[in-house]
Amino acid sequence: MTFPYRAALFDLDGTLIDSAGGIAEAVNRTLLDLGHAAQDEATVRAWIGDGARLLLRRALDHAGAILPDGDGFESAYALLMRHYGDSLPRQAVAYPGVEQALERLHGRGVRIALCTNKPARFIDPLLHALGWEARFEAIVGGDTLPERKPDARPLLHIAEGFGLSARECLMVGDSHTDAEAARAATMPLALVDYGYRRDFDLDSAGAWRVVGDLRELLAAAPAAC
Ligand SMILES: O=C(O)COP(=O)(O)O
Ligand SMILES: [Mg+2]
């Protein structure tokens, strides 16, 4: 069976890697530094996917902190960034099947991109830790462009760079930000059922495919395309 798209754009956290343990560690170190209680990993997981600033806002909000404005927020963010960098080795955990799925797509001539809301400065070190330095032909992080997912722009930026229309690409993600960005870009969508979604019904997102393992993306022909 052939894969019906010319490019696949992958979300990172909750789709390719199970980074929640490392991210929870970074968030908790930040909360503790600021005098708040640490949270369990399941709580922090639900805050991931909309970029690191919203992650911090949710953590401070949950802690009942008076949300610092301006400089106060920036210094808390700098603290999170320091701990986040230290946590990268623990974030570098690929889900089962990811390596083979990327390899097989590549082998079929599908162009492969990374489209994440993770701060861009952490992407290269993380890809290095995973041994994926040469895996992605295009990479867009959460602060690479003025807009991030759920805006359509990061997806369209990658498609345009490939010289492809949105319809020729597939966005593969785990959460509402990926689904909304794909809808806004009129790009076909595939979802994984194991990620960090919150209050999001996978089956009503209009996905071409919902999979429990990325190798299933190549498993069968689509119902319609
Ligand atoms: O919000 C994040 O930092 C992670 O984002 P991602 O799920 O888009 O990779
Ligand atoms: Mg994600």
TrEMBL record:
Active-site residues, record numbering mapped to chain: D11
EC number: 3.1.3.18
Pfam families per record: Hydrolase
Molecular function in Gene Ontology: phosphoglycolate phosphatase activity
Job description of the protein: Specifically catalyzes the dephosphorylation of 2-phosphoglycolate. Is involved in the dissimilation of the intracellular 2-phosphoglycolate formed during the DNA repair of 3'-phosphoglycolate ends, a major class of DNA lesions induced by oxidative stress.
PANTHER family attached to this UniProt entry: PHOSPHOGLYCOLATE PHOSPHATASE (PTHR43434:SF1)
Name of the protein: Phosphoglycolate phosphatase
